[in-house]
Amino acid sequence: MSCTCAWARRGAQFPCPTCGRSCKAHDFKEMTWRHLNFFQHHCYLTAPVPRVNCPDHGVKRIQVPWAREGSSFTVLFEQAALALVREMPVAAAARQMAVTDKRLWRVVLFYVHRAVARMDRCRGHPASELVEKLRHYAEPAVYQALWPRGQPRTISAVI
Ligand SMILES: [Zn+2]
């Protein structure tokens, strides 16, 4: 199933992703994201995404509110996938979501790295030693095995 979103119109103005100044659309590129299933059918969202021509920053593609930059999934799809990853191995979650485990790992690692970066900003936090260990591992199952008993499970909560 495919949904087409006509949210961006020619002649409309959009904020520059760098400075926020309202600029005219320079051009459009049709992009597609995998969204949550519609009943048992895979659902894809397609929309024209403009690039703006900012006088200060040049031509830049705007960020859509329903997907993070560089992802081919909507935020809601990623949220559902991460909820599954909290409960089962990534390969099993990938089968449930009908995506390859490699693609799901990219999503998981994006959010894990973002969580670790946020924890980095909290030097002196009781979990900072664990953050150093996390840098050397890629699988949340490993993270959980390393997590000291009784410590807050911040990364698990982020995922
Ligand atoms: Zn700008």
Descriptive notes:
The protein has 159 residues and is an alpha+beta fold. The protein has two domains: 1-66, no CATH class; 70-159, no CATH class. 36% of the residues lie in helices and 26% in strands. Strands 1, 2, 3, 4 and 5 form a five-stranded mixed β-sheet that branches. A hairpin with a 3-residue loop joins strand 4 and strand 5. Helix 2 (90-97) crosses helix 3. It is flat, with a radius of gyration of 19 Å. Bound molecules: zinc ion. Residues 16, 18-19, 21, 54, 56-57 line the site of zinc ion.
Brief overview:
The protein is an alpha+beta fold and 159 residues long. Helix content is 36%, strand content 26%. Helix 1 packs across helix 2 (90-97) and helix 2 (90-97) crosses helix 3.
Characteristics:
single chain; 159 residues; alpha+beta; 2 domains; 5-stranded mixed sheet; 6 helices; 5 strands; disordered C terminus; binds zinc ion
